[in-house]
Specification:
By secondary structure, the chain is mostly beta strands. Strands 1-2-3-6-5-4 form a six-stranded antiparallel barrel. The two termini are about 25 Å apart.
Length: about 100
């Protein structure tokens, strides 16, 4: 099995949940409004008006709509980036 095939198979080992949630992405202490496109137990895909590169470290906050539950806060590393349809970036993030 090639590394490419193994990487692809490993990505499918985690259930991804498609969402369209407003989140806050914090880069170097600066909050940025972003949209979470999907998430799994190991990471996120965000659409954000950013110019990040692979290896950048960020924080993500997904608010809870339930007053009895805290929102999700995570430190993450940018794994990949692509230009999004909105003119920003799609960001592949892995939880740290």
């Amino acid at each position: 099995m090639t590394l490419h095939h193994r990487d692809h198979d490993e990505k499918r080992d985690f259930i991804r949940m498609t969402v369209d949630a407003k989140v806050t992405l914090t880069v170097d202490g600066h909050p940025i409004a972003a949209t979470c496109r999907d998430l799994s137990s190991t990471g996120f895909q965000l659409d954000a008006p950013t110019s990040l590169t692979a290896g950048d470290i960020v924080e993500v906050y997904v608010p809870s709509h339930n007053p009895n539950l805290d929102g999700l806060k995570a430190k993450a590393k940018v794994i990949w980036t692509k230009t999004s349809d909105t003119g920003g970036q799609l960001l592949g993030l892995i939880n740290l």
